From TrEMBL:
The lineage of its organism: Eukaryota, Sar, Stramenopiles, Ochrophyta, Bacillariophyta. It comes from the Eukaryota. PROSITE patterns: A_DEAMINASE. One of its GO terms (molecular function) is adenosine deaminase activity. It catalyses: N(6)-methyl-AMP + H2O + H(+) = IMP + methylamine. InterPro entries: A/AMP_deam_AS, A_deaminase_dom, Ado/ade_deaminase, Metal_Hydrolase. This is Adenosine deaminase. GO terms for biological process: adenosine catabolic process; inosine biosynthetic process; nucleotide metabolic process; purine ribonucleoside monophosphate biosynthetic process; purine ribonucleoside salvage. Belongs to the metallo-dependent hydrolases superfamily. Adenosine and AMP deaminases family. Keywords: Hydrolase, Metal-binding, Nucleotide metabolism, Purine salvage, Zinc. It comes from Cylindrotheca closterium.
């Protein structure tokens, strides 16, 4: 338990989190009810988040296995089915602000001191047209906000959240000083770290290259013109990996690079093999070609990079491109726990890349991906990794500090947060 408590208290870094994937289940149900939206029962239903009493995992020889149980199986296709349903509920700027603030609260609760949140800009209503009782037949159709408005709502929420955090910290610091002066016992063990929030403008690869260029130009415009544009630190491409090819979007990301935006690219989420013996298997050939072209493009970071064959893994090792690893997401989408009665711990032992990255000291960060979808959080992720690979607390701290080196914020912000983290490690 001592290690579990230590992990919980550690200052953490989150570099790979999709905003819609952070939505709380309770919030999703609230928004669906308000809008009279019927969610897929297959993917959305109230759960106890406990190991079922009839599960064979309870007979597992390894007690920790029951603590890391997959109560909510999600295949890769399940994830994209879910992401197709969430926009039915998050359909206006009001709900967008709500899920953003709640996501920030949830990450801060787990002592995340630096967060990069990513989202694909959308045109939402200023206020939901589907919210029960809001609009009568005689009323005009509600106004659509711009994609820039979408991003501004997220940036404003980050600004407001940090201000509230700072005010809370000042108040608690005053209480500690008063307690110290009077020699009275204080219930506060130390200052709550103020979470620094940054934003990545995402490109959905199922959309057109024209839309991709639009989003890159939007990111550039936000940096230059938005009051909180300094929070926009990079761009991302994600979405269904079977749709389109990186070649289609490379020109847009060349523009991003020329503009000084940092770039992260989802990579190798589907199988690709060296010298595939079956040329008719076009999907594998295309996936290999795309993964290779992404590595040759040399983005600042890679998302997942799960299924690289040996030749491309060698390219990655030589390039030292940092990888955003999302353990629970990886185990679920690759269905690694399927043969182990739902044990995430046993599934994690089958991870195709993370043991190599940790052993070789390849730059890697540990992230949640979609904590609302996968029922996870930063503390759970680190506990799973530690339990699987037996990492020492010092090794975890090293990975966390190196993760901060991989962040897309400016050097001064990195140095400030790393100093804060080191002080917390030593306390």
């Amino acid at each position: 338990m001592m290690m579990e408590e230590a992990i919980e208290k550690l200052p953490k870094v989150e570099l790979h989190a999709h905003l819609n994937g952070c939505i709380r289940e309770s919030t999703l149900f609230d928004l669906a009810k308000e809008r009279s939206v019927t969610l897929s029962h297959e993917h959305f239903h109230h759960q106890d988040h406990q190991v079922p009493s009839n599960s064979s995992i309870l007979d597992h020889d390894d007690p920790p296995a029951a603590r890391f149980f997959n109560v909510r199986p999600r295949s890769l296709q399940d994830c994209f089915d879910i992401f197709a349903e969430i926009p039915k509920c998050v359909d206006d700027l009001i709900s967008l602000r709500r899920i953003t603030l709640e996501a920030l609260e949830d990450f801060a609760k787990h002592n995340v001191v630096y967060l990069e949140l990513r989202s694909t800009p959308k045109q939402l209503h200023v206020q939901s047209a589907n919210k029960t009782g809001n609009y009568g037949a005689e009323q005009k159709k509600p106004r659509l906000a711009s994609k820039k408005d979408y991003c501004h709502v997220i940036l404003q929420a980050m600004e407001d959240f940090e201000k509230d955090q700072n005010q809370l910290n000042l108040k608690q610091e005053e209480q500690r000083k008063i307690a110290n002066e009077s020699n009275a016992p204080s219930s506060q063990q130390g200052p709550i770290p103020t979470m620094t929030c940054r934003f990545l403008v995402a490109v959905d690869r199922s959309h057109s290259n024209e839309t991709a260029m639009e989003h890159i130009e939007l990111a550039k415009d936000l940096v230059q013109s938005d009051e909180y544009g300094y929070r926009v630190v990079g761009v991302d491409i994600g979405g269904n990996p079977t749709k389109n090819h990186f070649h289609d979007f490379r020109p847009a990301f060349e523009v991003a690079r020329e503009a000084g935006l940092k770039i992260t690219l989802h990579c190798a989420e589907v199988p690709c093999h060296d010298n595939d013996d079956d040329p008719s298997n076009k999907r594998v050939v295309i996936a290999y070609d795309e993964a290779k072209s992404i590595l040759e493009f040399a983005p600042d970071r890679l998302g997942h990079a799960l299924l690289l064959p040996p030749s491309l893994q060698s390219m990655l090792q030589k390039s030292k491109i940092p990888v955003e690893c999302c353990p629970t997401s990886n185990v679920m989408t690759l269905e690694l726990a399927k043969d182990f009665h739902g044990s995430l711990l046993d599934g994690m032992k089958q991870h195709p890349q993370l043991p190599l990255w940790l052993e070789s000291n390849h730059p890697v960060s540990i992230n949640t991906d979609d904590p609302g979808v996968f029922d996870t959080d930063p503390t759970k992720e680190w506990r799973l990794v530690q339990e699987t690979y037996g990492l020492s607390l010092e090794r975890i701290q090293q990975v966390l500090l190196e993760s901060m080196d991989q962040a897309f914020c400016d050097t001064a912000t990195k140095d400030r947060i790393k100093t804060q983290m080191k002080l917390a490690f030593d306390s």
